Amino acid sequence: MIMVGENVIGAGPTDLGGISYPTGHIIIYDSYPGGSGTARMIIKRIDEVLKISLSVLTHCTCTDGCPKCVYSPYCGNDNHYLSRKNAIKVIDAILKGVSSSVSELPTGGSYD
Length: 112
Ligand SMILES: [Zn+2]
Hints:
The protein is mainly alpha-helical. It has one domain (2-96). It is 38% helix and 9% strand. The protein has 4 helices and 2 strands. The protein has helices at residues 2-9, 38-44, 46-59, 84-96, and strands at residues 16-20, 26-30. Strand 1 and strand 2 (26-30) form a beta hairpin. Helix 3 runs antiparallel to helix 4 (84-96). It starts with a helix and ends in a 16-residue tail after the last helix. Mean pLDDT is 86; it is low at 108-112. The structure holds zinc ion. Zinc ion is lined by residues 60, 62, 65-66, 68-69, 84. Zinc ion (ZN) binds at residues 60, 62, 65-66, 68-69, 84.
């Protein structure tokens, strides 16, 4: 979502940072101290970002994560916990407006 979002609004590859949790919660923020407004621009186009992200994920032919879909050279966890399959579940649920309790959300990677 970070890479897609940066492309949608024309931002640079390090303008945003982010973290995702095994609960499915996703936090995307400005990389610059004090903020640059980049994350706010993403929120205004979040439906487009989510739909393109889901397309990237569903069209990738890897097993469960690769540099084409969920891996990032900027990942602070060295991409250990990123899962293409779980990312599809989370983004699909967001787009469908599914409200779930934490226990119903997919868990990922080595947290399984
Ligand atoms: Zn992939």
